[in-house]
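Why show two proteins at once? Because comparison is the fastest way to build intuition. When a single record is shown, students tend to memorize it. When two are placed side by side, the eye starts asking what differs. So, the first record is below.
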Amino acid sequence: MLAGYWHQIPFVRIVIPMSIGIGINMFFPIPIATCVSIFSISLLLLLIVWKFYNYKLNNLSFGIFLNFFLYTAGVAIHTSHNHLNYQTHFTKTNGEYLLLDINEPGQIRKNSIKCRAKVLKVVSKGYNQAVDGNIILYFEKDSSLLPLLSYGTRLLIKNTSQEIKGPQNPFEFNYKRYLAFNQIYQQAFLLKNNFIVIDQLGGNPLWKIAYEAQAFFNKTLLTYVKSNSEIAISKALLYGYDDDIDPDLVKAYSNTGTLHVLAVSGMHVGLIFWLINLVLKYFDKKKYQRIVKAIISLSIIWSYSLLCGLSPSILRASVMFSFVALGNMVKNKPNIYNTLAASAFSLLLFDSNMLASVGFQLSFLAVFGIVSMQKYFKQWFTFKYWISNEIWNIISVSIAAQLATFPLGLLYFHQLPVYFLASNLLIIPLTTGIIFVAIAMIFAAGLAQLIPLFTYLAIGLGFMVKWLIYFTNVIVLWLEKLPFSYITGIQITEIETILIFIAVAYTCNYFITRKQYLAKNALIFYILVLIVNTYEDFKTENQKFITIYNINKTFAMQIVDGQKSTLIADTSLINDKDKFHFHLQQHIWASGITKVDTINFNNNLQIKIDQLKINIGNKILPNYTNILTEKIYIDTNLLAVNTPVIISSKLNNLQSQSIVKFLKTKNVLTNNVLENGAITINIEQ
């Protein structure tokens, strides 16, 4: 029976070993030559086994070699997608200038204007060489530059590119790896005299149309919605741009388990697909009508996907609904698991690095949870009234999606929303309504350019969008402030995440089938989770270390003893929640610290931890581990070979380099936090 079912879902059988190969190669890459050799050998072995068994595809041996081949295919696909493996990447060629096209409009940041660009040529005196590769550009913040940095602008820039740095503190977000998964390995900081505009005619025409449509949307929202806070939410709901949303509001949506509504995903594409089917519901009778319906569906879905920037979540949904539309065209209802796997297979062939995207992982898991469990949860209760059944339908969808995704939420975000059922029950219908009203407003605004009478309709719809979003935000903020609305600070390992997934799978299957062995298996894995967690707690109880962090122009040092710590840091860091969360909070959670006492750092401080004496400030003392926070005039009489010096990130680069240069002439053991990243000193107990 199981073997027969496997034949109904061939893409599931393909995508699992292929994904394993991609995932392992992401973190343990192998050279191209080795990759080609392994792939060729696996293909040859597969063909030999296939021939030996007279082309019997259901043979166990053939299955083993097929899975090995698919695994090596995943490795080969990921290797081929790594731009650094090719000699045409611009980092392989030295040159004074780079010719490039901006491939997204400039975005205003706190201290700069940021945009991504595609490098076309490396240029030097006397020659230029065609290359490829992506780069992030940072321009000095100047409002006059923004119109120039539109999509398709071709620039000639001074080649000041440099490798993107990895995380400078323990468990800090790895921005370098994130960008590498998006094929970006270099960045450049440019002043006005570091570049010239060649023209603004480059880029792909389709992307230009998409960005022009986004610009029209922004102008329409500014005209008819007006309020900045509501405009920011509207952008997120319409086409997934969430950079303008207030961080506290983003946090509130995250803490209540409704952040997914701000990321254009399956819900948005599903609404569009539902609307298309509603309008074209009579196009199912004849074959040519079904073909026309499929063409219209695919055109609208992919136009919307392009408008939203082809993010992993929107791509997954668009590909999956495209398979559904094609299946409906031939009146052949596809197996949903096969459709889901086929969309994953297609996306990974296009860009294997999508596998590392948290949004990609969560969206696939959420859909898998909904299609595999929601129908069973829905059967638990039936009600007399339609509205009651619809409410339970939303609740059952939320339960299924949450069960399938919460282990990853714990791993990546270290929190669990407690009131996710109530929040989704309220927020999903509201945001669905907002999306439809906002789309109607956009259409009305477009028609108003031809028929001025539609302006009044656009004004009315804009008023509705504004107050619907305001009301939604009020509910989200209210839910967040409820007692015990979310649990934060949860830290689990990758092993615990896998064990929890298995335990939850057994638990859900038990409640669906009521088979006792499933409950026993679930209990075994819950016990394993408890054992691993107990071991992690034992390690944290016996830890004792000091970490000096690398935070620009800031001093921060944490003294950890078991599950308690003392943080000595600048007052500005302690009071800056966002900065604290980015640089320190992940390390605190990962270290299992439950209590943090803070001390505001002021100039000089001497402390003693067991036998270790630490001096912090602008002096170097003998027999101390010295941490410098200011540029100093060093008394050479105090220097000793056994006096280690740590230069903190409170100093700037020029100051730290001059001190390092001097101390090296005196054979003093020196460690520069600005160059080497955060330093951790283990204290022997």
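Second record. Ask yourself what differs from the first in the token line.
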Amino acid sequence: MKRETIKVSNITCAQCAKSIESYFGGMEDVDAKVLVTSKKVIFNYDEEKFDSEKLGNHLRIIGYYPIFNNEEQQKAKRKDSIDLILAFILTFPLLWTMFVHLGIPIYVPEILMNGYVQWAIATPILFFVGRRFFQATYHQIRGKNLGMDALVVLGTSAAYIYSVYTTLTYDSHAGHAMPDLYFETTAVIIFMVLLGNFFENRVKEKTSDALQSLISLGAKEARIRKNGKDTMVSVDDVKPGDIMIVLANEKIALDGIIIDGKSYVDEAMITGEPMPAFREIGDKVIGSTMNTVETLEIRVTAVGSDTILASIIQTVEDTALIKPKAQRIADKIAALFVPVVVVISIGVFFVWLLVVDGGHAASHAFAPAIAVLVISCPCALGLATPTSISVGSGIAFKEGILYKGGEFFEIANKINAVAFDKTGTLTKGHPELSDLVGDEDTLVYSASLEKHSNHPIAKAITDAYDEDYLDVSDFQVLLGKGIKGTIEQKEVYVGSPNLMKELKLDLSGFDYESYLKQGKTVFFTAIDQKIVNMLAVTDPIKESAKGVIDELKRRKITPYMITGDQEITARYIGSLLGIDHIFYEVLPHEKAEKILEIQKEGKIVAFVGDGINDAPALKMADVGFAVGSGSDIAIDTSDVTLMNLDLGLVIKAIDLSLATLKNIYLNFFWAFSYNIVMIPLAAIGLLNPSLAGIGMGFSSIMVVLNALSLNLFRFKKLETKEIIKI
């Protein structure tokens, strides 16, 4: 069975997911699972019977639009925009006629009062602009899971059909005026629901969507050696056991074991650690990482879905499917709300037909029945969540925070534990020169030599030096140890303590072990067999980290650190920040397991990370925060993206989410109160369908105005605390 993820432009709610899963559930050799918040469908299918194109065609049959490239994405957006604009243009003249129905003395062109003209205007709104609702309702009926789309279809169709009947049976020679028509009701309902979908789509567009294109992180081709000849081939054609040649500054295409050569491999995109790892014969390497120094000969051990990168993708997707997130409130109640409203409407019709009018005037019974359907249409319910989230997300965006859907708002107030990745999250994620012990004037030798190296530590040293460089000759990389060269006819080494010991140089004048205990990397510069300085390089802690940890503790939220770094470094950083709960030397795939351990203690856990290795943990956590400077996959798998390095955004994101959640609850209170009051009024005939349409529109306006009140929210200011080194 092949696994494939397809993005779908118009997945909006849990009902969409049920429709898609139900449709494919009735087919053999294919299984579909829907990620609603990411607008994606994960397929597992038999390659002999299905492919991407066939799956896309099946999605189109049930009214959903697959997105295979950016052009289709833009096309889908244009299609939605055209529908919304067309609905607005055609709805406006019909709304104009509503003033006459209400007895308001305002000029309305006589032609607009003609039933046939209104019929002509309303028809494209219902059957062209509103076609998506009919398609969705059809498949909801087949899947036996009626949703809000069914109410839209029932309400608009009933008002339309009744108005058509009234127009056709009206006798202009009878001497009486044309009775009230309800074409404008049809138009208003469709326009307001489309407007709600527009708000929701804008929210989701603000977030990164890199999981679909994650494969681009890996190499497309690999250099394979066969019969002594090197040939570039597609990674799809590589088999386990093939010999892969990877040059310096070239991406390692697939997982494997080094059989010849040694080099530094930049694994930051997988492990999150900033320092390249030294790899030599017998060591395993991971596909999509970068070889930085020397040519490597690698025996391929895994291809396709067996690679570590592919496993991370699958873990992320599978975790998202099983993650117990709350659905939108409107979708939860739809299964009960829709049939109840339909039953009430039918009951009202027969009560009026058989009891009130004695079985004579069916038209009198039809009006209150339609009014019940119209007044119950889910415009306010549909707007309640997306409008508040849209306004809240707009406020957050100005602060550098991106929300990815409504689930975070429902759970943020329950968070009582926050776990942080170390590198790139609590720390800045790139090394800096923190200490220079010895003759400061000799830094020119160190920097001049390091200028010829592409190691991140070399950049840390050269960044700290802003003078002119000296000429270097006979430059040489001593893999795993350091570098050497000739400067001003002097032999210069910059390297590790082990290199100095090999050179039999005296280290007794430098207390380098105390720096190692602080998690720093130590290098020495030796000129003509004499050590002249010691350089300590560290990954500095972010200025905002201490203040955030203190604020979390004040709120009775327990901070944790989960890192792949060694125990000494992890505990030292934890002691500086005041974090007591530390998991160290954690492998990438184990981070999600540590999150699960914390959850089993009864904690609602948020995780803050930035690397690809953090992606499963971001999904396993109840709430995932991705630091925006991190990898695309981490950003895509998170619930919240922090667009700059300020960890104070974690606190701001939680506070704004609480304010937004309160706003959403107030919206739902208004929407439900409106239905509770208005449905009985419509049932007893005090609201005709036109008034019901206006009332429905008014309820939506109230929801929008309440959402806009979020703009009055003000963030709490956090102090930036200086970290006292111990």
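One difference worth noting in the second protein: The chain is about 50% helix and 20% strand.
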